[in-house]
Amino acid sequence: MTTTARPTPLRAVLRLGLHRGVLELTAFRRERDAVVFTVAMPAVILILLGALFDGVYPGSDVTSAQYLAPSMIAAGVASTTFINLGTGIAADRDDGTLRRLRGLPMPPAAYVVGKTLMALVVSVGEAVLLIAVGVLAFDLSLPADPARWLTLGWVFLLGGTACALLGIAVSALARSARSAAAVLNLPYLVLAFVSGVFFTPVAALPEPLRTLGALFPLKWMAQGFRSAFLPDTILPQEVVPSWEHGRTALVLVAWCIGGLLLCLTTFRWQGRRNR
To answer: Tell me: the pLDDT tens digits for 6-39?
Structure first.
């Protein structure tokens, strides 16, 4: 008589994922050098680039550094979720952690949930630091009303989740933990440029690059953050004179769904060299 394994109920997956997320946060907090580097690097880049940019946009009192700050918050969240999460999973796969977890009653979805929760919590700290740098160094104004705070919240949640799931999926391309950083940093840097993170304003990008950037979540996360922090008087500097909240939500939700499907289809418990 043969039996087939029953699928793990969603509630059990979420419960296991929550426990795994707590363990991941505890382990990450103990690696102090990784914590400092992960959180500090985007803030340092913001300070350096903000000091280089100068001037005020016509028809608005927004400076170039203030325009840059929300985009760098998006880049910091993407770095914490996409790069660090992807390299962490590659390291887990390389050192045998995933093989050991496979012997436990933990479905891959619970591991994905735990890693994503860890990345989102770390990203909150990253975003708070970058907001503080923008406010203190460049006089960036905090969102002026509850609607803008709400926009900041849902853009962060959807954008961070999409980038985390993509980091998990792309980690499968790395043959080892050593190569994971190169595999993940290259697409991150390309997307940061084509998404207008390092350009002020975004409309200054060549049209082919703007079109390419619009296919990926980083562009929409940066635009959503700008809509939360910057006044509407800056809209003439955007590609479209509108914050496009509906389209932003649609693209980010689509990437969350697509990223989850990629994770579940490409996730591997062991590296290629161990097969």
So the answer is: 556 778 778 888 888 888 888 877 777 777 777 7
**Separation between Cα atoms, residue 7 and residue 168, nearest integer Å:** 22
Check residue 257 and give its pLDDT.
94
* pLDDT score of 1 more than 60: no
**Phi, psi (deg, nearest 5) at residue 62:** -85, 125
Cα 148 to Cα 153: distance, rounded to the nearest angstrom: 9
Q: Residues 164-207: pLDDT tens digits?
A: 989 988 888 887 777 888 888 889 999 999 998 887 788 888 89
CB 166 within 8 A of CB 255: yes
One-letter-per-residue 3-state SS of 78-131 = HHHHHHHHHHHHHHHHHCCHHHHHHCCCCCHHHHHHHHHHHHHHHHHHHHHHHH
Distance between CA atoms of residues 6 and 105, nearest Å = 12
- Is the CB of residue 122 less than 8 Å from the CB of residue 77? no
Amino acid at site 49: L
270 token code pair: 């062991």
Name the average pLDDT for the chain. Answer: 86
Q: Distance of alpha carbon 127 from its chain centroid, rounded?
A: 11
